[in-house]
Amino acid sequence: MKVCSKIVEIRTYGPMVLHPITYLVKDVISECKASMGLVWISVEGATPALIVLSKGMHKDFLNFICRFIPFNGWRHGNAYAHLISTLISTNIVIPIMDGSLVLSPDDDIYLLETRSVHNHVRRISIQIHTV
Prior knowledge:
By secondary structure, the protein is an alpha+beta fold. It has three helices and eight strands; from the N terminus they run E-E-H-E-E-H-H-E-E-E-E.
């Protein structure tokens, strides 16, 4: 098994803003010349989240999350951000076949910035395991 990894940084703003990262993952797959295997994507921190969404689902997804986990009413100031991150996850694993992500053509990978931040730097680990 061969492992190829890279840490990338993106600037985010929020709260509850989806930042596309599929292009970053595809770049690392290309750099690593990976044809078959798995890509493990992980974001540092206890408040961001990673998710795969189909085009056109953004507003429905964000509306659902905001209704399910309200911003206010918690003891900790940004407890909502921790809860959202915990429920969605800070890690995601996607298969690679023939050098491409195994996703529907309508799907993309997103980093969800849950906190009310501007110009925040998020570090994303992209690790590819090939056979």
